Amino acid sequence: MDATQLISSYEQAVASIDVDGLLELYADHVRVFDGTSAWQYPSKDEWRAAVVEWFGYLSGNGICEIRELRVAGSDDLVVISGLAFYAADDRQGGRAEIVSRFTQVWEPGDGGPRITHEHTSLPLDDQCQHPLPQPTT
Which pTM does this prediction carry? Predict the structure, then answer.
């Protein structure tokens, strides 16, 4: 599995605000730990609902870049981690931007490699329990 190609397909689908294109990258049995709304999304169907809601806030000019990329694995398993930078115009006429910690596990699946696990998170300030300022990468 070519990690650069895998992450590029993820970045392109998110930047295009393409629900179906993004969800095609996930295995049916994916488990997603996202930084918002729920403790986990234990299936592709449940993750789809969250992605539809997320993309529903956005109107265009999307950017997705996985920065400080690290890759480990073999032909049967690839683990990708880094800092995910997301930005897009929102439906209220503003611009939404966020950086989060990001990890994905890719495994062989029907039609090619699929994401079987994804974890995003934001570090919290120990004193006030609010997210730390975003890094300048």
Answer: 0.90
Q: Which residues contact 115 (CB under 8 A, 6 or more apart)?
A: 10, 25, 26, 27, 30, 104, 105, 106
**Which distant-in-sequence residues (6+ apart) come within 8 Å of 92 by Cβ?**
none
* Buried b or exposed e, range 8-35, using 16+ CB within 10 angstroms: ebbbebbbebeeeebbebbbeebbbebe
> What's the pLDDT score for residue 59?
93
In whole angstroms, give the CA distance from residue 58 to residue 24. 20
In the chain, the DSSP E strands lie at 26-33, 58-73, 78-90, 95-109, 112-121
70, 84 Cβ separation under 8 angstroms: no
